[in-house]
Structures are given as C-alpha cells and as structure tokens.
Amino acid sequence: MFRRIALQSVFALVAVSALGACAHRAPQSVADAVAQTPELHSFNALLAEAGLAETLKGSGPYTVFAPSDAAFKAVPAKTMAALKADKALLKSVLSYHIVTARMASADVKPGNAKTLQGASVALARAGNFITVEDALVEQADVAASNGVVHVVDRVLMPPKK
Fold it and tell me: What angle is formed at CA 48 by the lines to CA 64 and CA 148, rounded to 5 degrees?
C-alpha cells in the first residue's frame, strides 16, 4: 500500500513538473512566439520598429504569416532601406502579413482573408502545402495563446492603393 502511494506521488510530481515546464516554454502571445522562433529575428526586430509587437501581445486572435530571415535577405537592399526609412510603409507591409483570425494550418481554406493592413491575401492549399499569395508556408502552427504563426519563404508586399 505504502509503495503504491509513493509511486503515485512520484508520478504526480513528474506530471506536475512536466506541465510546469511546458507552460513555461509555451509562448504567451503571438509576439512572444515570433521572438522565440529562431528563423524570425528580422521579422521580430521590424515588428518592434513598426510598433506592431505590442499589438500582437493583445487579445487577438491573430494569424501571422511571418517571413523568415532568408526571405528578408532576398528583398532588394533598396526596398529594405525604403521600409526602414518610412515607418508607415513598414507598418503597412508588416500588417499585410497579419490576419485577424486564428487559422491553424488545418483551418486554412482556399480563398481570401482580410489582413490587419486592410487588404486581403489569397490563401491556397494543395495537400499539406499552404500558400499565402506567392509565399509558401515553410513551418506551420507555431502556437500562441492569442493566435498562431506560420513561417513563410517570402516577404509579401501589399497592393498599391
């Protein structure tokens, strides 16, 4: 009897410790998820510059199609310089990557989704492959309490108004 209680206590302690460790590592917001994803250093820094990191800490829900560091390296230097020089333009471009709804990869349906920027993006799916405009989702379903982040291989530019 004592042995069973001791064993149950050990299992309970292990379970509580494991849950505590998971809760500690789980991002609390989409902004935290972006900050903790190694491939998104450039996107994270630009979100802060544009003042959007605070927005993504809000209640949401948000789906962020976040360009990888490699995607930002592919953007011409002149374009990147223009984005960094014009905070309104930077905010517009980054907001175009944010949909104001939670869409895990399993929820993505072909069609359009309205972005935080105001314009819509075209979503498509072919089996397990998901695209947003001409960008391919390389890493899906980085979970957060207020949404989800999908890492994409291109920086999307909003349509000119």
Answer: 20
